[in-house]
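Quick note —
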Amino acid sequence: MNILVLGGTQFVGRHFIELALAEGHNVTLVHRGKTNPGLFPTAKHILADRREKLTALENHEWDVCVDANAYIPREVELSTEILMSRVDRYVFVSTVSVYDGAKSPRITEESPLLPSISDTEEVTAATYGGLKVACEAIVQNTFGANATIVRPGYLVGPYDPTNRFPYWVGRFASGEEVLLPKERDCPLQVLDARDLAVLLLRAAHGEVPAIVNTTGPASTFAEITDAIRAIFPSEVTEIPEAWLAEREVRPGAELPLYSGTSAEGRGLMLVNTDLAIASGLPHRPLEASIRDTATWLAEAPRTLRGNPLSPERAKELIAEYQEQA
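Predicted structure written out below.
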């Protein structure tokens, strides 16, 4: 199979390409040559900025396009316009953030979506979901029955550019005392990006429904942090969320992956994946994701997106809390 990948040198696309090449497919990457440009020497590389022009794709044809890094409608308009007559199938990596979590206590593929957003190109927490809704619509309107929309939740594993899951793995692996919120029994689903890659390849073959949610098994923040601690035993101080909030320590920001005691947004952590599992989505053991992430983090220093609680600030808060206890 001849596969075109938009993006592919960082996280989801990187795992997908590794799998596709290992299974003997011909892969062409479109990227700017700025992130890990030396990857995949056996693949074909086309250097282009998808936000400006994709004329470099003219005079080529592929069986399928896997779009792993589109966030704004204009990007998708440019790619679908030039590829509508050059690929047979279009697989778009979206997000469960397209759902209106406030309207659905549990998410299925039929749950209501957020309003579409197409009047801004600024990707923020407030616009991310709506922009992806607009991107999905462009793909579906262009490719119809040959479009596949894949909606992941939180992704983990090696090459993760965010400081969400790597933050907790790194904190426990450091051997230092770890600050955790006391109220930890909030829902959390994480999926190894390598497992998502398996489903994406099945989607490229046309073996996945038109829309499919791809998240990890039902779990909680407590269970996931406990699993990390089981591998990297560390002292823990649990501090009430309200006490932390008074000191501007926020769920999801300074405390990555933690949704807190508020019900807002919890629906996005209660996602039904029956359709994905029936379509071949695997779930590797969480322990494998933890160990492989730790190995990757130890290879070389790197800068990850996000500004979680620093080790120094965590020590200060732990000391202050223990003095008051």
